[in-house]
Design brief:
The structure holds 2 protein chains of 2 kinds.
Chain A lengths: L1 E5 L10 H10 L3 E8 L3 H7 L5 E8 L8 H11 L5 E5 L2 H13 L5 E4 L1 E2 L4 E6 L4 E7 L4 E5 L15 E4 L9 E8 L12 E5 L6 H15 L2 E4 L1 H5 L20 E5 L5 H7 L4 E6 L12 E4 L2 H11 L1
Parallel strand pairs in A: 1-2, 1-4, 2-3, 3-10, 4-9, 5-9, 12-13, 12-14, 14-15, 15-16
Antiparallel strand pairs in A: 6-7, 7-8
Helix pairs in contact in A: 3-4, 5-8
Chain B lengths: L1 E5 L2 E3 L21 E3 L1 H15 L5 E8 L3 H11 L3 E6 L6 H15 L3 E5 L10 H9 L3 E11 L2 E8 L2 E8 L2 E5 L11 H7 L4 E4 L12 E7 L8 E3 L2 H10 L4
């Protein structure tokens, strides 16, 4: 089987999410990559070094700069004439594009796979991860999105794939990029952070969230996450949200502070290697999944913890 | 402009799903069912656009069993004008749902199709994007803000790194994220009024759509269970544990 993997990037650098998708694709067959963007040859060169990659297809066109699904999906669909599976990381970009490709190919997509069980058989979470379904595709072509935390990252070095320039139909003329508000931060990205400090509604407001969570995260070199309640209440921006509909994370250590542990939140972090919970309610559901729990008032406990670490 | 709002009847957000012992699926017998929360947000947004004078009519659509009528009545009670139930007892996958919606959109010619970004049962996150592909129209997925501006709609989207704004020519498909709005509760008088609003019943074959599944679910199982660990007494004990993990 020949796979085509979507390379996630910002036109300058490849994103790590690509590497997990490559691992998933390599279980299906030969791995080809697609770099679609504008002025993104450096990304293609970086992608060509991923171990085990056969070929990199580079579509460099102003119409692909922001990965608008309307422009990119026809490009991918055209490439599927000579590929058997399209594989994308389950990032917001992948989730936006892949179903559009699937519909163009008349294929039912398999979303957010956790494992490859056979040539066309996968496991995937349903009901916020409260159940795991094994599904087999009966379509001729496959369209799959990959949960990054479920697959090891492929080695970013060691390959030397050929880069082939391709072109597509360009701008479909029905959508345009206006602007973006992307937070600039030196902090590790949530989906690749080794340690995450996450705060919930108990943090009270944006100022106390910053005052209590940030110093601890700084001390541990950690990424910062939040529960839906904390995001909804405006303590932190949307891209901090961990959960069923936010980011799915599986760091070495996840520290949940003032998070009760709704099933939708647990869905996003229960595969973390070690979970530490700090909560004043000893019956909070978060303690049912925590490896280490401390019952206490976070406003006392967290500063003391930060100081003693 | 008309707005088409597809809504799905799913297990209630607050119910913990139970996997059937025989691995055939999740037990939905005698379980509380509600409108998919993201679809509620879509209904609310459509109503707000109508209240702002940007839309004239809101048509709610559901594809599902006879009981999905209740879900449509909820949408009508919130403020949708009429409803279409495409009745089937089969499980209909996102691709077939998108095909049925495409056929309805061809008849109704809505300016916007507004729907939830994903259903909380199958968590597929596909229908809106697929519908957009089938209609050959633009998609504003994971919407945080929606502004109709003449013959286009500006959608601020929730993306991994923050927010992204795109401009789409109408007709367009918008899928809603959590923070787009807070859906209203239907008032009792509106619930009564909703009973008299028109609700048409159709079947997938009326739209010439084959709903045979493309994915075969061979097993549904419980996820691996995490065992609760230990509770520590104080911060010093926690510090020792964290140091033992080698991260500080």
């Amino acid at each position: 089987m020949k796979t085509l993997v979507w390379v996630e990037h910002d036109n300058a650098e490849m994103k790590d999410a690509t590497l997990s998708a490559v691992t998933a694709a390599s279980k299906l067959g030969e791995v080809h990559l697609l770099v679609a963007g504008s002025g993104c040859r450096a990304v293609a060169e970086q992608a060509a070094k991923i171990a085990g990659v056969g070929k990199v297809h580079l579509a460099d066109d102003a119409a692909y700069e922001h990965a608008l699904a309307e422009n990119v999906a026809p490009l991918i669909a055209a490439q599927m004439g000579h590929h058997d599976a399209f594989v994308a990381p389950a990032t917001t970009t992948g989730k936006n594009i892949a179903p559009r490709v699937a519909a163009l190919l008349d294929v039912m997509q398999v979303s957010d796979i956790l494992s490859v069980e056979g040539e066309k058989t996968f496991t995937r979470p349903i009901y916020a991860g409260n159940a795991i379904a094994t599904v087999e595709s009966t379509d001729e072509k496959l369209v799959v999105t990959v949960r990054g935390t479920a697959f090891e990252k492929a080695a970013a070095e060691g390959g030397s794939a050929e880069i082939e320039d391709i072109s597509g139909s360009g701008d479909a003329g029905i959508s345009s990029f206006v602007s973006q508000e992307i937070a600039e931060s030196d902090r590790p990205e949530l989906t690749s952070a080794k340690v995450i400090v996450s705060g919930g509604r108990a943090l009270k407001d944006a100022e106390t969230f910053e005052e209590y969570i940030t110093p601890l995260a700084d001390k541990l070199g950690a990424g910062i996450g939040a529960s839906r309640a904390a995001v909804d209440a405006g303590y932190v921006p949307n891209d901090y949200q961990v959960g069923q509909t936010g980011k799915i994370v599986a760091p070495e250590v996840y520290i949940a502070i003032g998070i009760s542990g709704a099933i939708q939140h647990l869905a996003g972090m229960k595969d973390s290697k070690t979970i530490i919970a700090i909560n004043k309610d000893e019956d909070a559901p978060i303690f049912q999944v925590a490896d280490i729990g401390l019952v206490g008032d976070l406003f006392k406990v967290v500063p003391e913890l930060t100081e003693k670490l | 402009m008309k707005i088409l709002v597809p809504v799905k009847r799913v297990i209630d957000y607050n119910v913990k799903p139970r996997v059937k012992a025989d691995g055939s699926g999740v037990d939905l017998a005698n379980v509380k069912m509600s409108m998919n929360p993201f679809d509620e947000i879509a209904v609310e947004e459509a109503i707000r656009l109508k209240e702002a004078g940007k839309a004239e009519e809101i048509i709610a659509v559901s594809i599902g069993p006879a009981k999905a009528q209740e879900t449509l009545r909820t949408a009508l009670a919130m403020g949708a004008d009429r409803a279409i139930l495409v009745e089937t007892d089969d499980e209909v996958e996102p691709l077939a749902v998108a095909k049925i919606l495409k056929a309805i959109a061809d008849e109704e010619t809505p300016g916007i199709v507004m729907l939830g970004k994903q259903a909380i049962d199958d968590d597929s996150n596909q229908t809106g994007q697929m519908l957009a592909a089938l209609m050959g129209r633009p998609q504003g997925t994971f919407a945080n803000t929606v502004e109709v501006d003449g013959d286009s709609v500006v959608v601020k989207r929730e993306v991994d790194g923050g927010l992204e704004t795109v401009k789409l020519s109408l007709p367009a498909i918008v899928t809603t994220d959590l923070r787009l709005n807070e859906p209203r509760y239907a008032s009792l008088p509106n619930i009564m009024k909703a009973k008299k609003k028109p609700l048409e019943t159709k079947s997938p074959s009326d739209y010439g759509v084959d709903t045979a599944p493309r994915l075969k679910t061979t097993n549904v199982s419980e996820p691996p269970v995490r065992q609760a660990g230990e509770k520590v007494e104080d911060v010093d004990a926690l510090v020792a544990k964290i140091k033992a993990l080698g991260i500080a």
